[in-house]
Every structure is written in structure tokens, then in C-alpha cells.
């Protein structure tokens, strides 16, 4: 679109300010993780890796990280499988109450995470099910399945069912046709649903807070460290997480893009 | 060579209240190129899907290679289908597409490689095995889809308007290509199309279908020269349709009156005196003359004026309005360069009594004929 | 005919069985993790606290909430801040989304897009933490200003409504950018050109063509940002003042400090209703469908 010079300048300036607002804080977090000062503040007093070393000595942190990984792993498996089944039912079939079912299935996306946490807490309590990591897996899945489902459905809708019939026509039984043709076609969506599920679970705080009981996930642990007092150790762990998530994000983005084109 | 490969008997398919296929029966002999020809929505695809096992007939029976198909799932039938949109697997290359069926059968790697290479040669795509589907042209995709089915040596190959998506020129080319492939392999083809030209060129048997029913089954020239009803007369080839009323019947001929003039033609169906009928005469069977005395021995004569002249290369198409108000198209073959009749000029049309045919009026749903 | 009817029944049976198997995990999920828990919470909010040993239903929990000026204040403050966050997000995000979708060249647009998305792969907690070290008394901004001798005392930027809003906008603005971007992306440029051709100036092009066209995107962005900011626990507790507590904090306190689950349920249910009200009024006003709004993201 054609725009005037004044507008061009306006957009440029606005964009630069916006990107500073967006990326500046993270850059500061990373820089301060190397500062020798005992609190995460400017100015830089000197460079050090001691905060990173301190991380490895922190057994609570290590335990919570393992917990988070375990939870994220379980949530990813659960969410992607339930979402795949449900997507097939919704895309391939017409059944009574489908519209209502679909609306309810998507509703967790627009329900505050705190409410999901509270309501599941109450329900599990009625079932004499103790809060803890298992409860967290259930609570997080309640909305992560919805996201995974949206991702998978949108690709499944684009799938031409004639391909499945063609496979059957060429001698594949129905299950085999799905295994050989439909699932490979869905692969990019399954990969991005899985990485999305993993990230959402790994980062989740609002729902987890109500269900975690005496166990700790990484966000819960970091949160309590933050409440306790700011320390450059938090910068160090943040830096590691930022680098890790960005790498995973770029990597999975590239994979899904490649797969999607094929 | 008289073995029947596909037999369909009293096939019916209802979707809810809609009768998509209505009491269809036919037989396809070994080696036939059998076409099912009909307008869009007449039930062609549905018929084919029942033969290949993707739809369960509401009633009726199907045999393939002499075996009843009731309860046999698609992957166990010895039919293979070339889909209307081809349905090539986009995530596989050409080789893997063609090999798919053989892999499903559990053939050995060596045998698969050999069969696929052979097939690639048949379709003139030697060396294309590694290409991905989206790197192929329309015509190449077409041939891969056919190869993928043929490599399994089906009793019958079913093709659902496989040329529909191609542009005109490629379609002309593929028509001949397909016919050649079929002749080379000798596999029985059931070919679906709504393009009568395609059907006439390729098939040795055609079933004309409309609104779920078979109208006529015959060789291309039978359909062309001896249509059994008004629908076939209109759908196959170009035809002049003249509304008329029966005046007299004698033997195999019927005399009719249309807008005040009398015409004679063959009796195509049993009609009675006074009945409203359609009188059909093909444009290329009409003789056109400037001079009244040039008519010769033809019994049907009409005087008219040239309304338009269109030069089409091999033929010139004249639109003529007769003095009593009928519109008639005439094709004149251009055997050599010659002068054309002028627009507005008076001319005389004539034809004999054996070419035209008189058929019952048939209600045809609006919009079915394009 | 008889055997045919049987075949039909067998086919239908198989279809229904497959459908049932496919739907079973989904039904379990929807029932056990969404419908029953929320319904249970709804019921609980009308019950007496167990310590009273009273059966039956009561409006006491809600009465307690609605007559308590302190609670009402928290409620209204949260509501106001969420609306403000939504509005500010819109102001910040619209030009950016427009720029990426319509002004920037393809390659530049892709690069900006990645830069915009990257921060959102990072945990919300870390993003909030970054603002703590920026806005604090010894934070980046105050240190900087004091070094330049522009101020003597540190400005109190942290632990108030300002810092909460900054943090919330920062945390959720991607949810505003993406849907606006995707509606604008789908808009045919010739619409804009046609309007210009018909004599509309820049301002009118925006007012009459571009903004109305992007309404669906704006709406789904607003719903997401509103819902996320009214329902979060992170930014308000980490960036907010100790006295200015947030509604989610109130709920948390009822559950884990006061151990009054019934009142907590009433508060949580009120929050749910408020969110639903917001969503449905947006949907009513714009005539969108709920699934459109969600699928937009
Ligand atoms: N699954 C279905 N459910 C309901 N109606 C159907 C279904 N499949 C086909 N029909 C209807 O049955 C009729 C015949 O459809 P069919 O696909 O066999 O037509 P066709 O002859 O192949 O047409 P075309 O040349 O357009 O492909 C149509 O009116 C169609 O709308
Ligand atoms: Mg069809």
C-alpha cells in the first residue's frame, strides 16, 4: 500500500519504540544475569558466571524443573491424543449435539485459567483425589487439549478424504489407509500441536497454582523465589529458559513449515 | 473374449429421499472401453462408487469378474478407481504413489521396482520416479493416477471424469493417450464423463444416463444415428429439435406437421396420430441450396432466410429461419474453398426421410442440458 | 431385501461404534474437566460452609460478597484495569498489525513478525520479572534517571496500578496483534484503493474501510486480552501494590488462606460470569459467532 512520507516516518518510529518495549526487557534480564552485583540492577559491576553456578547447586530448582518436564511430557501425550481423536470425530462425522460439544470443547480457551484450576480442584477434592502433579496434568490438559484440537482440526479439514479412499481402493484397509496416508499428512499439525502443548504446559502458572499442592513445578518455584526477593539467580534461570524456548520455537517452526510445504 | 467383467443389476441408491441412482443395469465385457455419459448430477459418480465399494447400494447387485460384491470392502475388490480429482498422495513421490498398492499387497521390493519401472514406461514417464507430485504437469499427474491403478492389474479400471480438470488442448491429447494405453494393456475401462464428444471418441460402448436412469446403451454410432428417446437425441451430438404433431403413420415412417409445414421422418418410438412429438434432424444431414431446382429427390423441403453465418474451419455453420418461423442449424462441410451464402439471402433446405427421427416429447429438467 | 436391510444396519452400527470410540476421550475430557467441575463450583457457591453443618442452598456467599465494600472495590478495580489493558493493547497493537499486514514489504514483515512472536515463547513469569527489575526503586529506569541527575529520589514506578497495566499489556499484546493481523491480511488491497479512488482521505479510509473490516479481529483480540488479564494471578501479585489486591488474588486467598471454599467458589463463579458477559456482549454487538472468535487466533 502507498503511504506518505510522514506516515512512513510515524510507522518507523512507532515500530522501533514498540520493538524496544517488546525486546528490551528480555535483553536486560539476560545482561543482568552476568552482573556481579548481588541484586539484578544496573550498573554492571563486572562479569561473572557465578549465578549460573548457583543454579546447579539449587536442588529445589532442579527438582521443580524435573517435575515440570514430567508434567509437560504427560500433558503433551494426553492432549495430542485426545485432540486427535476428537478432531476426527468432529471433522469426519455429523452427530447430534455436535455444535454444542464443539463450543464446550473450545470454551477453556476463553475461560480464565484460575477458574479452570479452582473448579477442577473442587471436583478432584470431591473424588478424594489429592492435589499434586497428577492433578496439575489434568488441570492443564483441560485447556491445552482445546488448543491442540484447533491446530489439528484446521489441517484435518483441509485433508481431501479422496486420498484415504484412494488408498483403500489400492488395497489398504481403512485403519491402514489412515495410518499410511492421513497421519503422515497430519504430521506437521501433530508436531506443532505437541510443541504448543509442551510450551503451554511448561509455562503454565495460573491453573497450576491451584492444583499443585505441596509439589512444585518450575514456574511455581520461580514465583516463590520472586516473592522471596529478587536475585540474579532468577536472571540466570530466565536466560537459560529464554534461550531454550527460542531455540525450540524456531526449530519447531522450521520443521512444521518444511513439513507443511511437502 | 465374451467374458463379462462387470455386471450391475437393478442398482438403486437413495440419499435420504433423493434417488441418485434409479434401477441401473448394464454389463461390461472384457476389454471394453465402456463410458457412462450424462449431465452433471445424474448419478455417474455414485454408480462408480458403488462398484468400487465406497457406497453401499440401497438395493441391487454388482458382480466383478463373476463374483458378487455384496459386503466386500473397497480394498478387497479387484477394481481400481481413478478419482475425479486424481487423489494422488502429495507427500509421496511418483514412484511411491505407483508402488502404494503393491506395497499394500506385500510384494517384494524387487518385484515392486520392476513393476513400477515398467508402468512408468507405459505412461511415458520414464525417469520421473523421484519427482514429487506437485512438480508434475496436469497431464503427467493424470498419467500417474492411471498408472497407480493399472499397476495392480485390476479386472476393471474405473475412471471418474479424469480429464475434467485439464485445459482443452491437453484434454484432446489425453483422450488419444488414454485410448492408446487401454489398447496396449487391454484392461477393461469404465469411463465416466459428461462430455459426449469424449465418450464418442474413446468408447466402444456408451451408457447414456439421466436423472439416475440409464436412457440407452449402445455403440457410439448407434447412439448417434438411432437415439431411442428425445434425451439421447439431444445429448449426443448436435441436433435440430422441432416441436411437431403426428399427422400420419405409415410403416416405419411418420408424417408430422410443424408450424404449418409437413415433414417426414423415421419412427423412433411408438407414437399415435395427433400426439405432440419432437422431430430431430442433424445439422450436417441437411442440404442447403440457393436454387429451388437444386433440391434433388429429398422429400423434406423448407424455404428460409440465412440469419447468421459462422465459419468454423472444416464446416460452415448456418443459422436459418424458415418462412414459417422455425430455427434450423445447418453444417456445410467445406470440401473446397467456395463462396458462402449471404446473411439475409433466401435459401432452400432439404433432407431425406431416413435421417430424421420422430420421438416422444420427454420432460427434461430445466438446466440439465447445457 | 431383508439381507440388504441387515447390511445397512451393520454399516450404521459400525459407523456409530467408530464414532463412539473416537468421541469417548473427548466426552470424558469435556465432562470430567470442564462441565462437571464448573457445575460443581456453581453448586458449591450456594452452599453453607461445612463448619456450620447446614444443608440446603443459600445466597449467603453472594450476599457477603456484594455487601462488602472492600470486595466490591477489588472487583471494580480489576474490571477497570482489565478494560484499560484491553484498550491500551488495541491502541498499541493496531498500528503494528496494520504495518505488518499492509505496509511493510513481505520480507521485512516476516522478520518483524518473528521478532514480535519471540517474546511470547518466553514464560509469562519471566516477562513479568523483567518489568520488576526495570521499574523497581533500584531498577533500570530509576538508576538511569538518577545517574543523569534528573531526579533525586527514585520514582515509585513499581507496585501500583501503572506497573500492573504495563505488565499486562506487555504480557498479552500478542493476542491482540495476531487476530487483527490475520483479518487485515485477508483484506483485499483494492478495497483501500477503491476508497481512495472515490475520494476518501487517509483518515476516512481508516474510519470507513480498514477499521470496520478488522472488527472481527479486534473483537477476538479484545476478548482474549480481557479474559487473560482479568483472570491472571501473576502480574497483579508481582507488579501490584500490597494493598491493591486483584480479584484472582482474593479467590486464591479464600481457598488457601481463609480456607473458605464456598465463598471462593462464589467469587470464582462471579468472575466466570463476568468474563462470559463480556464475551457475549461483544458477540451480540458485532454479530460474530463464538467459534469464529476462537478460531481467529
Ligand atoms: N453423499 C451424498 N449425500 C447426498 N446426496 C448425494 C451424495 N452424493 C451424491 N448425492 C446426490 O446424488 C446425485 C448424483 O450425484 P453424483 O455425484 O453421482 O453425480 P455425477 O453424475 O457424478 O455428477 P458430476 O458430473 O457433477 O460429477 C446428485 O444430485 C448429488 O447431489
Ligand atoms: Mg461426479
Short description:
The complex is a heterotrimer of chains A (262), B (370) and C (297). Chain A has 262 residues and is an all-alpha fold.
The largest interface is: A-C, 83 and 85 residues
CATH fold name of chain A: MetI-like fold
In CATH terms, the superfamily of chain A is MetI-like
Helix/strand order of chain A: HHHHHHHHHHH
What is the CA-atom radius of gyration of chain B, in angstroms?
24 Å
How many separate helices of chain A? Answer: 11
In angstroms, what is the radius of gyration of chain A?
Answer: 23 Å
How many individual β-strands of chain A? 0
* Number of discrete domains of chain B: 2
Cα end-to-end separation of chain A: 32 Å
Name the beta content range of chain B.
35-45%
Structural class of chain A: mainly alpha
Can you give the mean pLDDT of chain A? 89
Order of helices and strands of chain B: EEEHEEEHHHEHEHEEHHEEEEEEEEEE
Helix content of chain A: over 70%
Could you say which structural class the secondary elements and strand pairing of chain B correspond to?
A: alpha+beta
How would you explain this protein's 3D organization?
The complex is a heterotrimer of chains A (262), B (370) and C (297). Chain A is mostly helical and 262 residues long. Chain A has one domain (33-261): MetI-like fold (Orthogonal Bundle), CATH 1.10.3720. In chain A, 78% of the residues lie in helices and 0% in strands. Chain A has 11 helices and no strands. In chain A, 47% of the residues are buried. The model of chain A has no long low-confidence stretch (mean pLDDT 89). With 370 residues, chain B is α+β, with helices and mostly antiparallel strands. Chain B has 2 domains: 4-230, P-loop containing nucleotide triphosphate hydrolases (Rossmann fold, 3-Layer(aba) Sandwich), CATH 3.40.50; 238-360, RNA polymerase II/Efflux pump adaptor protein, barrel-sandwich hybrid domain (OB fold (Dihydrolipoamide Acetyltransferase, E2P)), CATH 2.40.50. In chain B, 23% of the residues lie in helices and 36% in strands. Chain B has a 6-stranded mixed sheet, with helices on both faces. A 5-stranded mixed beta barrel of chain B has the order 11-12-13-20-14. A 5-stranded antiparallel sheet of chain B has the order 15-19-16-17-18, with no helix packed on it. Chain C has 2 domains: 1-43, no CATH class; 59-296, Orthogonal Bundle (MetI-like fold), CATH 1.10.3720.10. Chain C is built from 15 helices and no strands. In chain C, helix 1 crosses helix 14, helix 2 (60-67) packs across helix 14 (261-286) and helix 9 runs antiparallel to helix 10. Chain C is globular. Chain C starts with a helix and ends with a helix. The structure holds adenosine-5'-triphosphate and magnesium ion.
